[in-house]
């Protein structure tokens, strides 16, 4: 067998039946092997899109996402998506073709130092020098992608290695990623802090669901009733019926979440990393709080915020071990009042569509367990604020990198991972155009993805900052000459509809959901609508600007 | 502050680049580098670095690298937390 066939055999050993990619010269042997393989390859229309689909697939399913590209431009097109996977800890294996070793290092056609490029955007990367190392290297790649804190791994395979003959019997692969070391030595100290706290808050990130510790989290919050807040990636971690859940914290978080964190005396950070979009001014973040930090990545402990007690390892084991008795009923009452006092308001004058209300309606109308993949900008924050999710696997949002163009291809990956579930992408008129070519992927595979374009004819989030912090100098954020999005979808055989008025929303959502195939709903909103509340740069999280104050 | 890190790593073609990339990105300056291959598989690397930030912010990131097998901060307790 050839190296190229071996690649696919090893992928199959790892349970891979779906890959995303785009062919080219240096990866042709692998594409030739794919021609007869039972692995289903989904041709994207740009490698960035293919890798985002792999990310969407991984995030929606919990499995490893796999993408491939050719050398040079194919591989460089992957870089943004790998960076996205790196910052959001998504297990992805990227396979790139490389020029033959005979010409490597000679500036050969489509030769780029992909291993060098990968250093800053992957958890690890390999260049395979010999076909004898190929299977073992791919196995390692899958192990590394999933072990501990997950992340992207790149495997660069020169063409001669793909073409080389090998008659190796496949080695059985060991599922080796279950031996996470967990130390419970600090559990007693954590319990002591929790038992003594008068005002505890659980601050929940993406690490909880990635550790598969959703049940343990609900039990922890049930036996130690306390207010909880989530990051963008943690949204959906807290059961919908948990009355003490306060929503997302941070720059566009809810006022209740931010105020509770600012006032708390104990912050229990579960699989989160004190990102600057969460903390605002770090010196003023949760100024009264002691911190318990639970994470699988030692490098996150004391990276930005000192933790009085740190616990490293498997969240599933740690959560029960730090569970104790705590009575903070006055604090719960106080936080319930904050939640009540600062609840969302959906009254909005005029006939025009108010995106937060539309998203709330969408959230209520969509089938249970729908996946929402969003793009980046104001609409992304409105999704986080106004939609509810039953699992973080149902809310795919580019958190760490904030990559426009994420939504559409991520939705494609999610739909392929979970064909039974409804998949919706909520995108902006700017972001949609960044990977709009993936409509062709939807067309080819007749993927029933629902596309909601929230069109404010602006690069809205940047425009909002220009309005608030740059003296209303609207430099290069006008998109009022957008294409006709419904006509654009029609070019890909995707039906659509455009709405501009509030009273059209209910029927339009109904039409979108009852249509059996892909569908584009073009939602025109007022370009003046902004995301509130907002913690301005450099401010503490209690210094939120609200619409009334703006 | 100057620090000396004694590292045992997999002897792979990119390993030094990885160490240097992390060192630079995390905001430390390289002041010295010495390496001795021990075998085909293993290499001993001594990194001297200077930086204003606490050194654990660097050691914890270097320790995370897949190719780093062992890391010691000369003249101090291991600054890396582990489970
Ligand atoms: C690839 C990329 N380029 C630039 C940015 C900076 N950026 C953040 S939000 C935004 C505007 C997004 O506009 P749109 O998709 O229309 O969403 P809106 O904010 O209007 O809802 C821009 C340009 C980014 N996040 N990603």
UniProtKB/TrEMBL annotation, chain A:
Record field: catalytic activity: 2 pyruvate + H(+) = (2S)-2-acetolactate + CO2
First-tier enzyme category under EC: transferase
DNA-binding is among the record's keywords: no
Gene3D superfamilies: 3.40.50.970, TPP-binding domain
This protein's name: Acetolactate synthase
Thiamine pyrophosphate enzyme TPP-binding domain mapped to chain residues: 375-523
Cofactor annotation: Mg(2+); thiamine diphosphate
UniProtKB/TrEMBL annotation, chain B:
SUPFAM superfamilies the record matches: ACT-like
Xref: InterPro entries: ACT-like_dom_sf
Gene3D superfamilies per the UniProt record, alphabetical: 3.30.70.260
Protein name as annotated: Acetolactate synthase
């Amino acid at each position: 067998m050839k190296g190229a066939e071996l690649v696919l055999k090893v992928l199959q050993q790892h349970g891979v039946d779906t890959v995303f990619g785009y062919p080219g010269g240096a990866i042709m042997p692998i594409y030739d092997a794919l021609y007869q393989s039972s692995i289903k390859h989904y041709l994207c229309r740009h490698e960035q899109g293919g890798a985002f689909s792999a990310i969407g697939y991984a995030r929606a399913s919990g499995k490893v996402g796999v993408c491939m590209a050719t050398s040079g431009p194919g591989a460089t097109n992957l870089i943004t998506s790998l960076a996205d996977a790196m910052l959001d800890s998504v297990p992805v294996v990227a396979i790139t073709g490389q020029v033959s070793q005979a010409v490597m290092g000679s500036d050969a056609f489509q030769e780029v130092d992909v291993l060098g490029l990968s250093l800053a955007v992957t958890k690890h990367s390999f260049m395979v020098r010999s076909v004898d190392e190929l299977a073992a290297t791919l196995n390692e790649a899958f192990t590394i992608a999933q072990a501990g804190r997950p992340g992207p791994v790149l495997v660069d395979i020169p063409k001669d290695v793909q073409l080389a003959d090998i008659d190796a019997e496949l080695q059985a692969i060991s599922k080796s990623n279950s031996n996470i070391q967990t130390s419970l030595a600090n559990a007693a100290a954590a319990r002591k802090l929790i038992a003594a706290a008068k005002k505890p808050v659980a601050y929940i990130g993406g690490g909880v669901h990635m550790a598969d510790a959703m049940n343990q989290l609900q039990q922890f919050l049930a036996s130690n009733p306390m207010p909880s807040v989530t990051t963008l990636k943690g949204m959906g971690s807290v059961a919908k019926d948990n009355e003490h859940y306060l929503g997302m914290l941070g720059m566009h978080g809810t006022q209740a979440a931010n105020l509770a964190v600012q006032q708390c005396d104990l912050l229990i950070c579960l699989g989160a990393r004190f990102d600057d979009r969460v903390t605002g001014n770090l010196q003023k973040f949760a100024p009264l709080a002691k911190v318990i930090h639970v994470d699988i990545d030692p490098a996150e402990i004391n990276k930005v915020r000192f933790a009085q007690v740190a616990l490293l390892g498997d969240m599933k084991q740690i959560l029960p071990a730090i569970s104790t008795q705590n009575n903070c009923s006055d604090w719960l009452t106080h936080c319930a009042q904050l939640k009540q006092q600062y609840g969302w308001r959906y009254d909005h004058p005029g006939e025009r569509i108010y995106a937060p209300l539309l998203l709330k309606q969408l959230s209520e109308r969509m089938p249970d367990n729908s996946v929402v993949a969003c793009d980046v900008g104001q609409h992304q924050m409105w999704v986080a604020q106004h939609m509810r999710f039953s699992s973080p696997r149902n809310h795919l949002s580019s958190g760490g990198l904030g990559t426009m163009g994420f939504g559409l291809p991520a939705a494609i990956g999610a739909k392929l991972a979970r064909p039974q579930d409804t998949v919706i992408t909520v995108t902006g008129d700017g972001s949609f155009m960044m990977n709009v070519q993936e409509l062709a992927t939807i067309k080819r595979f007749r993927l029933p993805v629902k596309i909601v374009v929230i069109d404010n004819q602006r690069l809205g989030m940047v425009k909002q900052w220009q309005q608030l912090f740059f003296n209303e100098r609207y430099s290069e954020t006008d998109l009022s000459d957008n294409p006709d999005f419904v006509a654009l979808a029609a070019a890909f055989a995707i039906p659509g509809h455009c709405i501009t008025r509030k009273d059209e929303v209910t029927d339009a959502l109904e039409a979108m959901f009852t249509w059996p195939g892909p569908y584009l709903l073009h939602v025109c909103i007022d370009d003046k609508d902004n995301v509130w509340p907002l913690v301005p740069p450099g401010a503490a999280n209690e210094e939120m600007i609200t619409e009334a104050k703006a | 502050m100057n620090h000396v890190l004694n590292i045992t790593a997999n002897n792979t073609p990119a390993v030094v680049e990885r160490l240097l990339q992390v060192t630079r990105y995390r905001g430390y300056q390289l002041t010295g580098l010495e390496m001795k291959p021990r075998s085909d598989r293993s290499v001993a690397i001594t990194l001297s670095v200077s930086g204003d930030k606490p050194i654990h912010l660097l050691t914890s990131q270097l320790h995370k690298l897949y190719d780093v097998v062992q890391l010691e901060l000369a003249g101090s307790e291991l600054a890396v937390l582990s489970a």
